[in-house]
Amino acid sequence: MKAKPFLKWAGGKTQLISVIEQTLPKDITQTNFTYIEPFVGSGAVLFWALNNYPNMKKAVINDINDDLINTYKTIADRPKELISILEILQNEYHALEGSEDNKKLYYYKKRELYNTRKEEQSGQAALFIFLNRTCFNGLYRVNRKNEYNVPMGGYKKPTICDKENILAVSEALQKVEILCGDFEQTLEHADKNSLFYFDPPYKPLSETSSFNSYAKDEFNDKEQIRLKYFCNKLDILNHNWILSNSDVKGKDKNDNFFDELYSDFNIQRVDAKRSINANPEKRGKLKELLITNQVNKKEYVRPI
Ligand SMILES: C[S@@+](CC[C@H](N)C(=O)[O-])C[C@H]1O[C@@H](n2cnc3c(N)ncnc32)[C@H](O)[C@@H]1O
Predict the structure, then answer these.
(1) Could you read off the pLDDT of 138-174 as tens digits, one per residue?
(2) Does residue 238 belong to any structural domain of this protein?
(3) Is residue 27 part of a domain?
(4) Is the CA virtual torsion 260, 264, 269, 274 positive or negative?
(5) Domains held by the chain: number
(6) Which residue's alpha carbon is at the smallest distance from atom 27 of ligand 1?
(7) Do 75 and 4 meet the contact criterion of CB atoms below 8 Å apart?
(8) Per-residue pLDDT reduced to its tens digit, 74-102
(9) Which CATH number is 36's domain given?
(10) What is the CATH number of the domain that holds 160?
(11) Mutate which of 50, 214, 217, 224 for ligand 1 pocket (most atoms within 8 A of beta carbon)
């Protein structure tokens, strides 16, 4: 069985994969390259790449969300232990089907337990997956105190323990180095033939649509600019990168934030559906940006 994302995650990239595939530099992907994903989230592109490029030498993933990274590490190192806890959670939760009050009580008790962060590694990872599967719309949102605060979702008997996939993911992760922290630290793990894929928290399309609170710290315009400087640095060091972000210009034609920021690079506008958006009106109409430093290298003058 092929490994696929084990979480629902905002900004999941399944829709964008075919465009990303066309954009990937063939001279890299046909070699023993290193794949680096500094904002991994649910890893939709990571798992696709692991399944499709068996010649990949290794992969490096990173995210600032330490609960998420703890879950990746648990799946990599202790999949069976994790599965046995998830099976218990799933049986207990499914047994409450039919009584909304009891389901709610159970959900909020588990959320409280998760927020104590006192369970050992695999217990904490199991609670992370349980909440992801049973919460409203698969959201991950925490308050300033890093307390997860998403309400319960309305799913009937959701799959909480997908045993086959956890085992497949565990196997796929054996050639993946798993890091937790700021995206810039991934550079230390790059080698000559590296390909970076960046999927940072998107710049919100409006003040109110701000949906980028995956972690305690906000990813604001200053962070977007810091990421661009990091991309410059990679370019100068001759690494290849691809980056996705929201198309703010599609919403406001005078908003040139990304067009100006990445004017030295190659910007494509592509169709992409947002998989998580509470407002159905906003699903599916927008474009996204796919930016890369891969252009016809001969004609290309590197920015200073
Ligand atoms: C848009 S999501 C990634 C979506 C992912 N590609 C997927 O397919 O689900 C952005 C991720 O960036 C992480 N993040 C936010 N700030 C970060 C930082 N400074 N360094 C590394 N990761 C960060 C968030 O925790 C979140 O998981």
Answers:
(1) 999 999 899 999 999 999 999 999 999 999 999 999 9
(2) yes
(3) yes
(4) negative
(5) 2
(6) 41
(7) no
(8) 999 999 999 999 999 999 999 999 999 99
(9) 3.40.50.150
(10) 1.10.1020.10
(11) 214
